[in-house]
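[step 3/7] fold_predict: job queued, chain A
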Amino acid sequence: MTATVAAPREHLAAHAERVTWSSPDAGLWVARSAETYLGMIELRGRFYAVSGADAQKLGTYRGLAQAKRTIDPSRPTGPLADRDDRADLVGTLIAAGTGLIALAAAVAGVIELAG
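[step 4/7] structure written:
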Protein backbone atom coordinates (compact mmCIF):
# COMPACT_ATOMS: atom_id res chain seq x y z
CA MET A 1 0.00 0.00 0.00
CA THR A 2 1.29 3.45 -0.87
CA ALA A 3 0.69 6.32 1.50
CA THR A 4 0.80 9.69 -0.17
CA VAL A 5 0.38 13.32 0.72
CA ALA A 6 -0.74 15.63 -2.07
CA ALA A 7 2.13 17.83 -3.18
CA PRO A 8 1.28 21.52 -3.16
CA ARG A 9 0.70 22.97 -6.64
CA GLU A 10 3.35 25.62 -6.00
CA HIS A 11 5.94 22.88 -5.53
CA LEU A 12 5.01 21.05 -8.72
CA ALA A 13 4.95 24.21 -10.82
CA ALA A 14 8.05 25.74 -9.25
CA HIS A 15 10.53 24.17 -11.66
CA ALA A 16 10.09 23.99 -15.37
CA GLU A 17 13.81 23.40 -15.92
CA ARG A 18 15.49 20.04 -16.28
CA VAL A 19 15.78 18.16 -12.99
CA THR A 20 19.03 16.37 -12.19
CA TRP A 21 19.38 13.67 -9.58
CA SER A 22 22.39 12.70 -7.49
CA SER A 23 22.82 10.03 -4.84
CA PRO A 24 25.37 11.32 -2.31
CA ASP A 25 24.83 8.32 -0.04
CA ALA A 26 23.18 4.90 -0.17
CA GLY A 27 19.41 5.28 0.12
CA LEU A 28 19.46 9.05 -0.50
CA TRP A 29 18.58 10.91 -3.72
CA VAL A 30 18.77 14.68 -4.15
CA ALA A 31 16.98 16.67 -6.86
CA ARG A 32 18.27 19.96 -8.29
CA SER A 33 17.21 22.23 -11.10
CA ALA A 34 20.07 24.45 -12.30
CA GLU A 35 21.22 25.96 -8.97
CA THR A 36 17.99 25.27 -7.09
CA TYR A 37 17.54 22.50 -4.51
CA LEU A 38 14.16 20.86 -5.16
CA GLY A 39 13.99 18.14 -2.54
CA MET A 40 15.19 14.71 -1.56
CA ILE A 41 14.13 11.10 -1.31
CA GLU A 42 15.24 8.88 1.55
CA LEU A 43 14.88 5.10 1.62
CA ARG A 44 13.31 4.14 4.95
CA GLY A 45 12.97 0.40 5.21
CA ARG A 46 10.92 -0.62 2.17
CA PHE A 47 9.51 2.83 1.45
CA TYR A 48 10.77 6.04 -0.12
CA ALA A 49 10.04 9.21 1.88
CA VAL A 50 9.91 12.39 -0.21
CA SER A 51 10.63 15.88 1.16
CA GLY A 52 10.35 19.12 -0.78
CA ALA A 53 12.81 22.00 -0.92
CA ASP A 54 11.35 23.49 2.25
CA ALA A 55 11.59 20.10 4.07
CA GLN A 56 7.82 19.65 3.75
CA LYS A 57 6.84 15.97 3.62
CA LEU A 58 5.42 15.25 0.17
CA GLY A 59 4.63 11.56 0.56
CA THR A 60 5.85 8.00 1.05
CA TYR A 61 6.01 5.56 -1.85
CA ARG A 62 6.87 1.92 -2.53
CA GLY A 63 8.87 2.71 -5.66
CA LEU A 64 11.71 5.10 -6.40
CA ALA A 65 10.22 6.12 -9.77
CA GLN A 66 6.94 7.12 -8.10
CA ALA A 67 8.83 9.07 -5.47
CA LYS A 68 10.89 10.90 -8.11
CA ARG A 69 7.71 11.86 -9.99
CA THR A 70 6.50 13.65 -6.84
CA ILE A 71 9.42 16.09 -7.12
CA ASP A 72 9.67 15.98 -10.92
CA PRO A 73 6.18 15.54 -12.46
CA SER A 74 7.68 15.85 -15.95
CA ARG A 75 9.20 12.36 -15.57
CA PRO A 76 7.57 9.92 -17.98
CA THR A 77 5.29 7.20 -16.67
CA GLY A 78 4.84 3.60 -17.72
CA PRO A 79 6.87 0.38 -17.64
CA LEU A 80 10.02 1.80 -19.23
CA ALA A 81 10.00 4.84 -16.96
CA ASP A 82 9.89 2.64 -13.86
CA ARG A 83 13.36 1.24 -14.55
CA ASP A 84 14.59 3.03 -11.40
CA ASP A 85 12.40 0.73 -9.32
CA ARG A 86 13.61 -2.35 -11.17
CA ALA A 87 17.26 -1.29 -10.95
CA ASP A 88 16.88 -0.69 -7.22
CA LEU A 89 15.28 -4.12 -6.79
CA VAL A 90 18.03 -5.81 -8.83
CA GLY A 91 20.71 -4.06 -6.76
CA THR A 92 19.06 -5.22 -3.55
CA LEU A 93 18.77 -8.80 -4.81
CA ILE A 94 22.43 -8.85 -5.90
CA ALA A 95 23.55 -7.54 -2.51
CA ALA A 96 21.41 -10.13 -0.71
CA GLY A 97 22.76 -12.93 -2.92
CA THR A 98 26.34 -11.85 -2.34
CA GLY A 99 25.69 -11.80 1.40
CA LEU A 100 24.25 -15.32 1.31
CA ILE A 101 27.24 -16.62 -0.64
CA ALA A 102 29.62 -15.07 1.90
CA LEU A 103 27.63 -16.59 4.76
CA ALA A 104 27.66 -20.03 3.11
CA ALA A 105 31.44 -19.81 2.60
CA ALA A 106 31.93 -18.86 6.25
CA VAL A 107 29.74 -21.73 7.47
CA ALA A 108 31.61 -24.18 5.20
CA GLY A 109 34.91 -22.93 6.63
CA VAL A 110 33.71 -23.43 10.19
CA ILE A 111 32.46 -26.94 9.39
CA GLU A 112 35.80 -27.81 7.78
CA LEU A 113 37.73 -26.56 10.80
CA ALA A 114 35.46 -28.46 13.19
CA GLY A 115 35.69 -31.69 11.20
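[step 5/7] annotate
Residues 83-114 form the longest helix (32 residues).
Residues 4-15 have pLDDT under 50 and may be disordered.
exit 0
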